[in-house]
């Protein structure tokens, strides 16, 4: 038994092609909108973090801060480094 019925292929309509192009264009617009939104959001976050990291000016001027730091440095007691090596120096001379 042979089946002599011809295979019917549906015709590709021009309307289907137009809808594919429209969907492709809508997809591209959505992708550009998403990328633009992410770029804007990250730029906004970065600018807000830069504003937060800037120091707030206090009552002291820069010269007063430098003077305070110099006073603190002068208050640090640094022992003589040569005194630490006197015993080693004597041992080396005995060799």
Give a quick set of tags describing it.
95 residues; 71% helix
TL;DR?
With 95 residues, the chain is mostly helical.
Share in β-strands? under 5%
Helix content: over 70%
Distance between the termini: 116 Å
Q: In terms of quaternary structure, what is this?
A: single chain
Coarse shape = elongated
Which stretches are poorly predicted, pLDDT < 50 over at least 5 residues? none
C-alpha Rg (nearest Å):
40 Å
Please identify the structural class as seen in this structure.
Answer: mainly alpha
Mean pLDDT: 80
Q: Could you tell me the number of beta strands?
A: 0
What can you tell me about this protein's structure?
With 95 residues, the protein is mostly helical. The chain has a domain at 13-52. It is built from four helices and no strands. The mean pLDDT is 80.
């Amino acid at each position: 038994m042979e089946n002599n019925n011809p295979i019917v292929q549906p015709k590709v309509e021009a309307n289907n092609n137009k809808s594919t192009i429209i969907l492709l264009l809508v997809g591209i617009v959505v992708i550009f909108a998403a990328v633009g939104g992410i770029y804007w959001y990250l730029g906004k976050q970065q600018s807000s973090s830069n504003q937060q990291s800037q120091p707030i000016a206090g009552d002291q001027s820069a010269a007063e801060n430098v003077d305070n730091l110099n006073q603190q440095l002068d208050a640090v007691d640094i022992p003589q480094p040569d005194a630490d090596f006197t015993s080693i120096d004597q041992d080396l001379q005995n060799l």
